[in-house]
Amino acid sequence: MLSLPDRFSDATFSSYRAKTSSQEEAVRAVRRFVENAQTVPTLGQRMRRLFSQSSRQSKGLYLVGPVGTGKTHLLASAYHALTPDVPCGFLHSNALFRLTEHPARFAERVADRCEVLCLDEIEIDDAANEARLVLVLQTLEQRGVRLLATSNVEPEQFLSNKVGPGRFRRFLRETFREQYDVLFVGGEDYRRSQKKKRPGSGWIGPEQTADEAIRAAYESDEKQALWLPFSELRRKTTETPHPVLMRALMEAQSLYVPGIQIHDTDDALRLLRVIDDLYLAPDAPDVHFSAAHPPEEWFDRDAHAGIAQAIAEKFERTVSRIYDMCDVNQLDAT
C-alpha cells in the first residue's frame, strides 16, 4: 500500500519542467525537504527530541494548487530521492479514506515503517474523512514522521473548519500551519498540453460522427474490448456495488464508452468515481469515449453554484485525468 505507483517510476527532479515562479520555488522547497530528511541528527538533537513533548524533526510541506501543475511529480521525485536510504511511504488519499482500520492505529503502523510519508491529493470530501485525516496527521506528528503532501485545497477550506468538532477546527486553523509549510504551486494544466502518445482516445463532435468514429475503433481493436455506452455505465453505477463494477471493468483491456453526457451532479459524481479509480489503478484498461462536447464542458463550475459548484471544481481533476489518459480529437460534421 505504501509503495510508489509504477506510473511515477521515471519522476525525478531533473525531469520536472518548472514553468512558473511558484513551480520553481516548489522544486527548491521539496529539495530542501529531502535534504532535511536525509540529515542524520546529532546525539544532542536526538536526546532533546527524546525528552521534549514533541518528536517533530522539522516542519512538513503541503503543496497546494490547481490540477496539472506537477505537484505529484515532485512528490514522487522526493520519494525516489529518499528511497531506500530514508524509509519512505507513498499513499493516495483515496486509499486512506477507504480504510476500515482506526486512523490512529493505521498511522502507528505507518510510523513503524516510515520516517517520511508522501500523501497525495488531499481534498475536500466529507467531514468524516477529514476527521480521519486529522487523526492520521496528529499521530504521525507525535511519532516524528515527516509529511510531504499535495492538494488542490487550502487547509482553511476543509469542511471541518465549518462543521467539524472544535478540536478539528483548531487543528486546521491554527496547528496545521505551525506544523506544515503551505506552498502554492500555480500554472496551467500540463496534461492538456503535454505532447505524448496516450493509450486511450476521445472523439468530440456531432453524435452520428462521433459514434461512427468510436465504433470503428472498437471494431478494429484487437485487445479484449468492452463496449459500454454511457447510459449503461450510469445504470450499472446505480445497481452494482462500486468495487464489483470496477473489478468487472478491470477485466477488459480496452473500455469504450460512447455518448458521455452529464445531466446533473449525480452523473458527475458517478463518472468522477469511475474515471478516478481507473486512473489510479496500475492495470486499468485503455479508455475510449465519445461525446458531443469536450470534457471541460461536461460539468463546468461556472454554470453551477453551491454544492454543485464544489462538485464541479472537484470534477476538474477528473477532466485533467481524462486528458492524461486519452488523445481527444475534435470532429467536424460529415
Automatic annotation (TrEMBL):
SUPFAM superfamilies cross-referenced by the UniProt entry: P-loop containing nucleoside triphosphate hydrolases, Regulator of G-protein signaling, RGS
A Pfam family it matches: AFG1_ATPase
Single Gene Ontology MF annotation: ATP binding
Top-level taxon of origin: Bacteria
Boundaries of every AAA+ ATPase domain copy: 57-181
Keyword Nucleotide-binding: yes
Gene3D superfamilies: P-loop containing nucleotide triphosphate hydrolases (3.40.50.300)
Protein name: Cell division protein ZapE
Organism: Longibacter salinarum
Taxonomic placement: Bacteria, Pseudomonadati, Rhodothermota, Rhodothermia, Rhodothermales
